[in-house]
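TA notes, week 10

Several of you asked for a full example with nothing omitted. So below is the full record: structure tokens for the whole chain, then the designed sequence directly under it. When grading your own attempts, check the secondary structure regions first.
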């Protein structure tokens, strides 16, 4: 028997459960980065707490019916964080966790960027700057259809250097799309250096406000802060952006906040070291 989509406003999931799920998702990401293909580990780990709060506490969805017409929509615009999304979808029950072992193999649906054929993936992304424009389109469609569906889009901060995002931000504010929520994974790093060195984004919050958005700035690894920011009703007539201050490589002390964590191929010995670091990080969080 399948469940029904989560009702908006239902009781929040205990923080301890969210924390356990986040730790589990990080372990799954490490598993997926072990072997020949490797993966975008740093930017996926910075996303985990955001994805877990969304999928386990905020989004209306039914893993047994991924195309349920009553669902909210989620688009991962920073498509190189796909392994973080796959791990979260598997943990949430969209497909068996065992399927994650096929990541990157010939014939697998689990490719380096999100694939629409994967249960729970709404749109393929990866060419940066496309997710937020898609979210604007989905939000307009929901308005025309008269539904209360909410569209959620997670972008990278370096990705905001793409002009298509700012066209979408301007359009969303002008159209008063209060059924659109963007989350910026603000880890401050991109493949060529820090975002502020490559092409400065600050004052990011003020830029969104100038285009008519409600801005909520939070610690992107504080599960309760994320939950509050994402569950608080929108200001009527204004789209919402949650700027989540995160750490690339979160949970693995020796790669945290480093550009070199962007992509990794882990051997078995490295995997053991990384999982041990995750365990230490988890014990520190709950102590």
């Amino acid at each position: 028997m399948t469940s029904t989509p989560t009702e908006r406003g239902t009781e929040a999931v205990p923080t301890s459960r969210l924390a356990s799920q986040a730790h589990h998702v990080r372990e799954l990401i490490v598993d997926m980065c072990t072997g020949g293909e490797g993966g975008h580990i740093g930017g996926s780990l910075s996303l985990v707490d955001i994805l877990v709060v969304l999928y386990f506490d905020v989004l209306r969805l039914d893993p047994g019916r991924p195309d349920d017409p009553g669902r909210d929509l989620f688009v991962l615009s920073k498509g190189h964080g796909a392994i973080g999304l796959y791990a979260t979808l598997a943990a949430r029950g969209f497909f068996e966790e065992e399927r994650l072992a096929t990541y990157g193999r010939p014939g697998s649906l689990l490719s380096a960027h999100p694939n629409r054929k994967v249960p729970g993936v709404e749109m393929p992304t990866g060419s940066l700057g496309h997710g937020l424009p898609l979210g604007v389109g989905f939000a307009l469609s929901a308005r025309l259809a008269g539904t209360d569906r909410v569209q959620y889009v997670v972008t990278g901060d370096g990705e905001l250097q793409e002009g298509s995002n700012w066209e979408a931000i301007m359009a969303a504010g002008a159209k008063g799309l209060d059924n659109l929520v963007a989350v910026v994974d603000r880890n401050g790093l991109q493949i060529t250096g820090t975002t502020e060195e490559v092409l400065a984004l600050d004052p990011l919050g003020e830029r969104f406000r100038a285009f008519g958005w409600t801005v909520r700035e939070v610690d992107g690894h504080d599960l309760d802060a994320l939950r509050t920011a994402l569950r608080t009703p929108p200001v009527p007539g204004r789209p919402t952006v949650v700027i989540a201050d995160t750490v690339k490589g979160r949970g693995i002390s020796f790669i945290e906040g480093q550009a070199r964590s962007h992509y990794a191929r882990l051997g078995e010995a490295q995997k053991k070291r990384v999982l041990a670091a995750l365990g230490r990080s988890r014990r520190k969080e709950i102590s």
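Strands lie at 73-76, 151-156, 180-186, 189-190, 193-194, 214-219, 240-245. Use that as a sanity check on your answer.
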